[in-house]
Amino acid sequence: MKKSIGVIGLGIIGGVWARHYNDAGVLAGAWNRTPQPDFPRWMPSALDVAKTADVVQIVVADPPAVKGILDAILPALGAGKIVIQSSTIDPASSEEFKKLVEGAGARYLEAPFTGSKPAAEQKKSVYYLGGDAALIAEVEPLLSLVSEFRYTIGTNVQATTLKLAMNLNIAGQMQALAETLTMVRKVSVPDDLFFKVIRQNVSYSGVTALKEPKLRSGDFSPQFSVKHMLKDMRLASRTEGCDDFPVLDTVRECLFHADQAGYSNEDFSALIKLLK
Question: What pLDDT is attached to residue 107?
C-alpha cells in the first residue's frame, strides 16, 4: 500500500519537497507556522496534518521548533504513524524527541539532509538516516521521491552528529573561500581568472562551484541562510567533545557578526561582506 506523507515546515527546502510529494500524488497535508493557504493540501494545523498522513516529515528551524511541533501533534501519534525528523538538530534533542514519539506508540526516524534549494528542486537532496533498518526500508519509496542518495548512518545520534559535522566543513570552506577571493581582489586579480585557476587547484570543491555565481554577482538571496548556518554551528559547539574546535569557534563567530550586521536572511556566502 502506498503511504501518504504530510510536511510540516514549508521553508526553503520543506516547501520544495512538499510540492514534489504532491506531484507524485502522496502528499496528504502541509502546514507552516506562517500561513500559506494556497499551498497544495494546506491544512489549518500541524495536528490536522498528523491525523491525515501516515508519515509526518518535520522540516523546521531548530530544536525548540521541533519540540513545539511534536507537542502539537502528539495526540495524533500512535501505532501505524511514522515521524521523519529532517530538521538539523543536536544529538541530545534527537534522543529526547525519539523517546517522546515512541512513547506515544509511533515510530521515529532521524533524517537530516544535505543539499540547498537548487538540489531540492532537482530532487538531489541527500539524506543521512539514523534509525531502525526496517523503518528505513519502509519509508525509502517516499524519500526517494525527493532525494538522490539516502545513506544509512546508524543511530539517530550518529546521523545528527554527522549532519552537524558536514555543515561545519561547509561553513569552514565558505569562510576560507571568502577570504581567498577578497585577498586576490585586493591586488586586482579578476574574478574570471581567480575562478579559472581555482578549478585546477586541489582545493576546488562543491562549495566553490555552488557559491561562485553569488560571489561574482553579489546576489545573496538564500540557498542556505546565515541564521540557519549560525544555528547549526551553535548546535555543533554544544555537541559533546566539540567545545575546543578552533575552526568551529571562528566560523560561528563570523556568522554571528554577519547576523548582527543585518545579513541574517541572506545566503551564508554573505560572509564575504564582512571582509574589508
Answer: 98
